Amino acid sequence: MFEECPQCGETGSTLRARRAYEGDPPAFEVAPPPPPPVTRVATSEPRWNLRTRTAALIVGGYLAAGLVAVLAADAAGLSAAAVLSGLPVPGVVVLVVLWLARGRAPLPAADAEQVSFHNAIWTRRMQVWEHAWFCSACRVAFWPAGALKAGFPASPAVPAHEIPLTIATMAERAYGQA
Ligand SMILES: [Zn+2]
Asked: Is the pTM of this model over 0.85?
């Protein structure tokens, strides 16, 4: 069964977009939507977790030792400032702040969510593409009435440069937003 081109009204020059794209020569106008970029999904256990704990232990121990040294110096009649000047306190503070900031980095779970979000969008666009038709005479894509789902209206003839955007828009209209 061949669908009628909305531009020239012919049926002899229309074919499925996939067949046109996989034909010889291929109709690059109706290339499938590009897949989402491959994003590395981090494991659920952050790699720096152990390092964070180790650093917290070291810094905590260091601060405790400093406190004990100051108290001991006080008891021995030495000035606390003299003892503290021997400890790189600002460096310790910077370390603590840095490690706290690392702890607030986005969770890897967010990455996984984003990946599945993009995959869902791509799947819907592929569905739209699979239902597209192509007129090899007019070099336009079109979707017959009800092609995407029952009751969905027919599309006008879509010129090549508008096809990717049309696919994205129709995916949202026909299948809802991801
Ligand atoms: Zn045509």
From this structure: no
Phi, psi for 142 (deg, rounded to 5): -160, 160
CB 5 within 8 A of CB 14: yes
Of 57, 41, 53, 63, which Cα lies nearest the Cα of 102?
A: 53
Mean pLDDT, the chain, integer: 84
Give residue 30 CA to ligand 1 midpoint distance, Å. 14
Other beta carbons within 10 angstroms of residue 83's beta carbon come to 17
Q: How far is the CA of 7 from the centre of ligand 1 (A)?
A: 5
User: What's the rounded Cα separation, in Å, for the pair 33 and 124?
Assistant: 10
Say which residue the tokens 């990717």 belong to: 164
Mean pLDDT score, 91-106 = 66
The pLDDT score that the predictor gives to residue 16 is 97
Looking at the DSSP bridge assignments, the partners of residue 16 are: 133
- C-alpha–C-alpha distance, residues 70 and 74, integer Å: 6
Spatial distance between the Cα atoms of 78 and 9, rounded to a whole number of angstroms: 99
Q: How far does residue 135's CA lie from ligand 1's centre (Å)?
A: 5
Q: Within a 13 Å sphere around the CA of 168, how many CA atoms are in the beta-carbon half? A: 8
